[in-house]
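Run SCP domain-containing protein through structure prediction, thanks.
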Amino acid sequence: MGAIGYFFLRGTDFKSLFSDLTSQRFYIQRERGADFIADWTAEELLLKINTAREKKGLTKLKGSTKLDQSAKSRLSVILSENDVDGSVTGITREKALLNAGYTANLVGELIVTGFFKSNDIVAYWNNDKTTSETLNHPSFRDVGVAIKNSVDRVDVYILLASPRTVVKQPATPKITWGGLELWEAINKRRVEMGVNPLKQRDELCTIASIRLNQLLTLGRLDGHEGFVPVLNREDLKWISEKYNISEYLIQGYPTPTEAVVAWENTLGHRSLLAGGEYVWGCVYAQNTIGVAIAAY
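Sure, done. The structure for SCP domain-containing protein is below.
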């Protein structure tokens, strides 16, 4: 009887590799008359691995519950479905890591099945160039271990990884103002400029609401392209027949006060703040996009 060892890197043709490996047998002599051998544990195996790495001047691997979970799911499908590469069940190494919530920069794995407990698994891995390079890779930091014991043999799956470093982006100031705050800022500035504050009318709010939804869907201002078509809708025509209506648009300002200042200093928009002819209005705003409707 023998033990079979497998190691896989990204891009490996798993099926052909596994076929080649399983056609080869590693025969290891078992001592006759050996006493009952205790089950292997993940802690003891990790200690052996780290001892071997430290002798080579490498960093000790740290046990990870997420990698343990991934290793267990991989060993399960390998033993039950002979699914070495995950193509049968869909539980690939990457999928197992994703399911466990672990994001890896580099991943390696070591597998043995039917390995005699009385033999030295670390020596076995170090005796092969490929598995030795995996076991002693300097970039690995975390490890997951899955073990299935039988009377005198053991199946082992080791998952080694280095976590992906997440670079935190500078926090973007949260925009909290909306239509109410912009409405208040507009009327405050109108009073400061010596004209009456606007009075709200529901029908004007209908137009402002429709226009804001259009702009939010578009993701930008439309240069008032959608304004006249809204006024010409059969169900809304009466509003433009009743009032003289103007539309003012704004986008991208962190505060309503800054939005009002921008209007004040933009040709054609100052009338929203200084135009004494306007009596009624309504303002809708979201995600720094603002629509102000003014009428008389």
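Residues 65-81 form the longest helix (17 residues).
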